Every structure is written in structure tokens, then in C-alpha cells.
Amino acid sequence: MNSKDSNLDALFESKLTTAIEAVARIRSGTTIALGMAMSQPPSLLEALAARAEAADLDDLKVYYFHAEEFLRKSLLRYSLMGRIVPHCMFMGAPERELIQLGDQDGGRKVVYFVPNAFSQSPRLFQEHIPVDTMLVMVSPMDENGYFTFGTNNDYTSGVARAAGRLIVEVNPNMPRVFGDSLLHVSEVDHIVESDHPLPELGAKSASDTDQVIGELIAELVTDGACLQMGIGALPNAVCSALTSHRNLGIHTELLTPGLVDLIRRGVVDNSRKALNRGKSVFTFAMGDRAMYDFMNDNPSIESYPVSYVNDPHVIAQNERVLSVNSTIEMDLTGACNSEHVKGHQYSATGGQLDFVRGAYASRGGKSIIAFHSTAGGGRISKIVPRLAGPVTTPRTDTHMVVTEYGVANLKGLSSSERARALIRLAHPNVRESLTSQARELHLL
Q1: What is the mean pLDDT of residues 348-352?
Q2: Are 94 and 72 in contact (CB under 8 A)?
Q3: Phi and psi torsions of 142, nearest 5°
Q4: Per-residue model confidence (pLDDT) at position 1
Q5: C-alpha–C-alpha distance, residues 309 and 280, integer Å
Q6: Which DSSP state fits 31?
Q7: How many whole angstroms separate alpha carbon 391 and alpha carbon 338?
């Protein structure tokens, strides 16, 4: 708390309580929502898990995206399943582990996936998922009585105001962030204080293949372009290949250390953006301590709700938007499955299609789907005759495709031309079989 107003201090103190007391009013059979990823509040989650463990709670529906370590170690313990009913909106390793344990336990259903478009998630909560209580971690209150949502604006800022009760965990390690990120103390029902270090996203080393793809993509980037990057070693390799560019901008769903490094180097200055000029815009951030420190009180970085950041109409208003996303598999027509593996939900739709469409609609924009040609140590081709899962990005929306074997622009190509172009991007060991299968599908 850093307030010069005694009335604000008194209001803060009147709402300050312990984690145990804060969650005491949550009832069995109700619905709660959690902040996403780094904003999941550890003290509150531990207190809620203790109630479930003591059989003081049952059938508690919990809605969230991106479970990180705090949530994984508290509410998402297999022993609590049933009393805690996870309604996951973006699947990750914690949910996949729970599903596997349920399968081993006689095929027990323990995780419930909620299909969604990330950009629509604030509306889903406001209109279709009545939330009794929202739990989220925020940055400390300033002298004017405002917290900020820090690393996570996404759906969090909207649900915080739509929920029947809002409980915040104030943490000095949560960066204070500009943009549409303010939350006034008068909007909060209960306040808990803690000092947990934020979860950090370990940097994955770029492979030789990542570096090849990164260089290919960098050649497609013009000075003044506006960037959106996904997560992982490949997007970081792209960022590393952009250090000689100039006047780049950022309008991205996810802010990562790779993008922040471009800001530090002066490669990104956002000087040519039409919207939020001079500002790097994001809706959620995942990185390391150095990145969180760089974000803190940095007026050049702003967060906004995902309904704004991921709106294709908003994205398209900046010129030369370059969107880089990946996929699990792509068929010979260019359709992408970016969320299913072996017939099961693996992640989620996320914001891929929003940025695919928004980037292509921008003047001079490029939407890129980039991926290694193979998976499983080279045993599995990621370019396939037919998808084994749902269509995340339709073939009609796919623009540019990049693997370590080159670049293909699918726009304007016939089905036959697309198949030939994608076969050239596949691993040489599978090109002959893909060609044969393409003939069977009457693509060639």
C-alpha cells in the first residue's frame, strides 16, 4: 500500500483480511473464476484447497485459463477432484496429467474443457457463465487507490467486475502496468497480502531448426512492421533474428522475453503504429523476473482486455502486422489443427485465428504459420493428408507457411498448387508418400 489519502488507507484496511477468512464465504456448488497464468493467487488457492481437503467444500466449479504452478500445486491435486471441478478453457500439462490419472482410475472424468475463442472469453463470463467469486493477484495499491492487473488483463479485468464477489491478493512482485489495467480499491470486496515470487517461464534453447525458421521469417519482416508472437523457442528465435530491424511495433496477445529484448535494444519503438502509437500492447505476459521488472511502471508498455487486443478489426488497423503462430499439424490444403493430439484436446483454440485474420486484413500484413516439418524425433510428419483433429485455422484463412524447408504463400493458389507447395515444405522422407496420398484425395 502506497497511499497518501487516509480515507483510502482506511478503506484498504477495512477490506484487508487473511486468505482463510477471505475464502470462508465461498459455498459448495457455486462457480468461481481464477486469474490466468501468472496472476493466479497462491495464498487464496492454498486456503481454498485446504477447505476442499477438509471436506468443507464440494462440487466447486472452477473456471480458468493456463494453470501455472500455484494452481497446479493447490486446487489441481488429483485427491481433490470431485470436490474441485476444473472447467479449463486452455488445456496444459496439469490437466493432461489429471486426465491420465482419471483414465487409470477406471476412466473417471475429472477435467471439463470449455471450447472458446480467447477474444470472446470476457463475454462468455459476462453473459453465459455466472461467477460467484473471482480470485486474482494484483500489484500494490498506489496513492490514488488503484491496483493494476499486472501480467494479466485478458478476461481477468472484465470478470473481476462481473463477479458477485472479488477477492484480490496483493503482491509487490506483480508489476504495475499501464493501459486499461487499473482496479480501484472501492471495487474490491476482500484483500489479502502476500509476497510470493511470480512463476517464471523458463527460456527454451533454440534448436538449429528454430534458427533456420527464424531467419526465414525475419526475411519477411519489413522495418515498421507490427509484431505478434506466440510462445516457445521458435518465436524467440524469430525475435533473435530481428535485431537489425528498425521501428518495429508490438500488438500481441502474449508478451514474452523475446519481444521485451527487442524493446530494450531499441528495435521496437512503436513509432509507426496507427493505434496505441509509442506503446507496446499486450493482453497477458509470461516470462522471467527480469521481464517483470522491466514491465513495472514502464509507460511504454500497456495491457488491454483480450476483447480489444485480439479483435481482428483492431489488429488490422495497424499496418504491416506480422503474426507468427504454430500448429500441431497442417493438411495438404492448408487447414490447421493447433489443439488436438491423438484424438484428445491438447491445448485450445486460443487467439490464433484472431491474429491470422487480423494480420492478413492489415495493410501489408502477413499471417505466418511456422512449424518444424516433423515431430517425435523426426518420426511424425506435421504436414498430413487429412487432419486428425478439429480445424483451428481454416484453409481459406491460412496465408504464409514456413518450415525449415522454405516459405509458401498459399493465397490465390488452387488446391493442387497448395498441395505441391506444402509437400515441398515437408520432410524429404515423406514427400513421396504425401504426393501419392494427394493423388488419392484428387488434389493432384
Answers
A1: 95
A2: yes
A3: -90, -175
A4: 61
A5: 11
A6: E
A7: 8
Residues 275 and 170 in one domain: no
Domain extent, residue 80, equals: 6-193
Q: Is 401 left (phi over 0), alpha (psi -120 to 50) or beta?
A: beta
Residue pLDDT, tens place only, 184-207: 999 999 999 999 999 998 777 889
Q: Has residue 32 got a pLDDT over 90?
A: yes
Which of 164, 193, 222 is the endpoint of a domain? 193
Tens-place pLDDT, residues 163-178: 999 999 999 999 999 9
Upper half-sphere CA count for residue 370 (Cβ side, 13 Å)? 33
Query: Of residues 169, 253, 339, 404, which has the active-site annotation?
Result: 253
DSSP state letters, 139-177: PPP-TTSEEE-TTB-TTHHHHHHHSSEEEEEE-TTSPP-
CA-CA distances (angstroms) from residue 270 to 138, 259, 297, 318, 385?
A: 27, 12, 18, 10, 41
Asked whether residue 327 is assigned to any structural domain, the reply reads yes
- Cβ atoms of 275 and 316 within 8 Å: the answer is no
Cβ neighbours, 10 Å, residue 187 = 14
Instruction: Give the cell for residue 212.
Output: 533456420
pTM of the model: 0.96
Residue 288 and residue 230 in one domain:
yes
In a domain, 123, yes or no: yes
pLDDT, tens digit (0-9, with 9 covering 90-100), for 233-242: 899 999 999 9
Q: How many residues does the chain have?
A: 444
Strand, helix or coil for residue 185:
helix
Assess whether 253 carries a catalytic annotation.
Answer: yes
Domain boundary among 138, 159, 193: 193
Report the C-alpha gap between 353 and 88 in whole angstroms: 20
Do 77 and 181 lie in one domain? The reply is yes
Type of residue found at 9: D
Asked whether the beta carbons of 174 and 151 are under 8 A apart, the reply is yes
When the pLDDT of each residue in the chain is averaged and rounded to a whole number, the result is: 96
Question: Number of folded domains in the chain?
Answer: 2
Q: Both 128 and 101 in a single domain?
A: yes
| Interval 258-294: pLDDT, tens | 999 999 999 999 999 999 999 999 999 999 999 999 9
pLDDT at 323 over 80: yes
**pLDDT given at position 6:** 84
